[in-house]
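[recover] target loaded
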C-alpha cells in the first residue's frame, strides 16, 4: 500500500474543513497543514488557509470530489 501523500488544494480554513469532511465521508484519508503558522495568522490578521493532502492512490477521486464541490468559474 502506497502511503505517499500529495497536495490536493489550498483553501481557507472554513472551506478546507468542509472539504475534509466530504473526503472522509467518501473514505478518502486526508490531512491538513496551515499555510502560515498560527502565530503569524493571529499577528497579521491573515485568514487562515490550510494545505490539504491525500494519499497518492486517492488523488484522482479526491480531485473529482473537489471539482464537484468547488466548480471552477471561468
Amino acid at each position: 500500500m502506497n502511503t505517499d501523500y500529495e497536495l490536493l488544494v489550498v483553501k481557507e480554513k472554513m472551506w478546507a474543513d468542509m472539504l475534509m469532511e466530504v473526503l472522509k465521508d467518501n473514505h478518502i484519508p486526508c490531512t491538513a497543514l496551515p499555510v502560515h503558522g498560527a502565530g503569524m495568522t493571529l499577528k497579521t490578521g491573515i485568514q487562515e488557509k490550510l494545505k490539504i493532502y491525500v494519499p497518492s492512490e486517492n488523488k484522482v477521486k479526491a480531485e473529482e470530489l473537489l471539482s464537484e464541490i468547488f466548480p471552477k468559474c471561468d
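[recover] notes: The CA atoms of residues 42 and 48 lie 9 Å apart.
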